[in-house]
Specification:
Layout: H1 3-14, H2 19-37, H3 48-60, H4 65-84, H5 111-118, H6 126-141, H7 145-149, E1 156-157, E2 162-167, E3 170-175, H8 178-195, H9 215-229, H10 237-250, H11 255-261
Helix pairs in contact: 1-2, 2-4, 6-8, 6-10
Length: 262
Amino acid sequence: MDCYGAYERYLVEEKKASPNTSSSYLRDVRQYLQWLEGRGIPAEAASRGELEAYTGALFSQGKSAATVTRCLASLKSFYRYLLREGVVAENPANRLDHVRVERKLPQILTSQEAALFLAQPDVGEPKGCRDKAMLELLYATGIRVSEIIGLNVADVNLERGTVRCTGRNGARVIPLYPAAVKALRRYLEEVRPLVIERPDETALFVNMSGERMSRQGFWKIIKQYQEKAGIQKDVTPHTLRHSFAAHLLENGADLRSIQEML
């Protein structure tokens, strides 16, 4: 039995896991199977001892506790499927203790670091103009990555200076500061019409091929400007989200209003 191929079909066809979930689970399982293959051990013959050795190897490679915990969840799912199919008599991953994950407080940019970061895109170039609009909007609203890439042009009202965002808790309208409105207006008027692939494209932010921006593409943009700015902190969309909230508090906003925007 091709355990990997059968598990992949199970995730996609039966479990109907999302593309991101399937990709993550399959990557973890594939790396584990490659590790077993290097030791001449088939997946169906692996014991708890092999799994403990594998998690130890991951830590030796410098993987974080969170990464190892996620990997264990993937392997438990894999062996749960093999158990159901009668390929194994028990799930060896079930008896492994959970790896303790240290919860770190998110890093927050100072106001000076945030200004430096937002100043990095070259607005004289189409890509830089788009990136400036995305970063200003993210910092102005504190919305999540999934929310910003899911925005449509119709969600933005430049005359009122607001954006309508639909997230986990329904729709909310968030005010924008002037710099964000200016950056969005320039992008919408000068850049987006030139790069969209189809006239009926609804996405607010598109890649340079004219299609809706992806999560991976957005993360790359964040990392690019972190390096360009020389900021030593680990800047992520989550960093900007927490910085947004912290800076509002510093400037006198009340906590309840911030929570409603987030």
